[in-house]
Specification:
The chain is mainly alpha-helical and about 150 residues long. It contains 6 helices and 2 strands.
Length: about 150
């Protein structure tokens, strides 16, 4: 598999051996995952991202540049031919499970009972069910049933 900008060695990784730390180095700031979220929801232009997030222009410029440099977004000419637009790459689309898990955690822990919030629904209008990680044997796994094994 070819190396991408995201997987290339970087002396500034927070923890070079940890996939969680590397991921957070790439998308763990306040705005990056919101830009990815909005791209998943159809945002394509700088103006759309800014309108949906309320992010300052200079910060949005930086995040779009960073997400593009690391292969999560790609730029292409808009159908009008007058502007550039941003589209998710395969790596960006692979963040769907991360966004979904954060959303579902937020539904459980960031709202008071009965407090209204947006819902993610599938193409039939049904609420997307809770995600639950399972091991190779099909049993649910959690922090108590897993451990990190260092590679060397």
């Amino acid at each position: 598999m070819p190396r991408t900008a995201a997987s290339a060695p970087n002396s500034e990784w927070t923890d070079p051996d940890c996939p969680v730390a590397r991921t957070l180095d790439l998308v763990g700031d306040r705005w990056s995952l919101l830009v990815v979220r909005d791209a998943m929801d159809g945002a394509r232009s700088f103006t759309e991202f800014q309108r949906r997030t309320g992010i300052a222009r200079n910060i949005l410029t930086d995040r779009l540049r960073k997400l593009t440099a690391h292969g999560l977004l790609a730029q292409r000419t808009a159908p009008s031919g007058r502007r550039q637009e941003y589209v998710l790459t395969d790596a960006g689309r692979d963040l769907f499970a991360v966004i979904l898990t954060l959303r579902q955690w937020g539904e459980r822990h960031a709202f008071s009972p009965g407090e209204p919030h947006s819902m993610l629904v599938d193409q039939h209008g049904a609420v997307v069910p809770e995600v639950a990680p399972v091991g190779a044997d099909g049993d649910l796994v959690d922090a108590d049933s897993t451990r990190v094994q260092r590679s060397r």
